[in-house]
Amino acid sequence: MLSYRHAFHAGNHADVLKHLVLVLTLDYYLRKDKPFWYIDTHAGGGLYQLSSAEAQKTREFAQGIQTLWKASDIPEALEPYRQQIRALNPGTKLNYYPGSPWLAANLLRNTDQLRLFELHPSDFTALNQNLGSDKRVHVSKQDGLKGLLGLLPPITRRAVTLIDPSYELKTDYNDVISTLSKAHQRFATGTYLLWYPVIERQRVKQMATALQQTGIPGILQLEYCPLADSTGMGMTGSGLFIINPPWLLAGQMQTLLPWLNQQMAHGNGHFTVAYITPEKNT
Ligand code: SAM
User: Fold this and answer.
1) Per UniProt, where does S-adenosyl-L-methionine bind (predicted)?
2) Domain locations in the chain?
3) Contact 138, 62 (CB under 8 A)
């Protein structure tokens, strides 16, 4: 039985990092005319109301998106992400926060398509209500990792995949790596974004080592932690491992992460931008 509900965490620092990277990646894919697919293996409900009982219970958004909403003089590379938040909240108050499928649906063109997977019955219903009537969107109540492998290679030969589990099951940590390895064998040129929480540093190191053992070249690690590493404190930060990242992304994040760290942790957090496997031609 799944108990994780993203509504408690929508708009927190981890969502800011993940969605910023997603928007920059989609923005890059949109520069070419050729259509592509966006695949979201763990899609969530798609849209979140920040006045809901769930969001208000944790108020995690206050340290995340709320700090950017108020900020002035934001870096240029952050604009496409903030524009999405503004489009959802045309007034002065921040009422809604978009999930990853919502962001993708708003950015993609008529010729692009979205393939979304969500297992939780309530989130599946919400996702269908929020995005199901869009002709470009296919929503499946199916395991997203199995579903992903069934879609590859996509007929478009271009795709961005977000793998964003809740890691409720300890087996998720191994399953995401073996799925990525198989996905890369079927479709080596796609971009894959694998999100992870920083709860125990050792677990993150194990994921990086397992990814290095797949032999996949050029994997970029982006991480942002508002809190120092710890054990027993819950999530202190989060990151993404990215296969075939847009070539501009590492440089953009080098500029953005110090700024985000000021906004979200008064400069007290820490971050990483590093390739964990060598690029193909090096
Ligand atoms: N990607 C979303 C976003 O950024 O807005 C958030 C997703 S949330 C972290 C993870 C979601 O995965 C939850 O809604 C959960 O119900 C769903 N889930 C858990 N196991 C799943 C599985 N095996 N296949 C598909 N969805 C699953």
Assistant:
1) 19, 42, 100, 118, 143-144, 164
2) 6-275
3) no
How many other C-beta atoms lie within 10 A of the C-beta of residue 35? 18
Atom 22, ligand 1: residue with shortest CA distance:
143
Tell me the best of 42, 47, 163, 172 to mutate to test the pocket of ligand 1, counting ligand atoms within 8 Å of each CB and taking the most.
Answer: 42
Question: In 3D, which of 44, 80, 81, 38 has the Cα closest to residue 192?
Answer: 38
d(CA 134, CA 137): 5
In angstroms, the CA 50 to CA 29 distance is 30
Q: Domain 6-275 maps to which CATH number in 3.40.50.150, 3.10.420.10, 1.10.150.530, 3.40.430.10?
A: 3.40.50.150
Mutate to test the pocket of ligand 1, among 1, 5, 6, 41 (most ligand atoms within 8 A of CB): 6
Ligand 1 atom 1: the closest Cα is on which residue?
43
Kindly report, residue by residue over 118-135, the tens digit of the pLDDT: 999 999 999 999 999 999
Is this prediction's ipTM beyond 0.95? yes
Q: For residue range 219-233, list pLDDT tens digits in order.
A: 999 999 999 999 877
Tokens for 44? 């969530």
- Site residues for ligand 1, CB cut-off 6 Å: 2, 4, 6, 18, 40, 42-44, 99-100, 117-120, 123, 143-144, 164-166
Q: Which of 237, 243, 281 is nearest to 260 (CA)?
A: 237
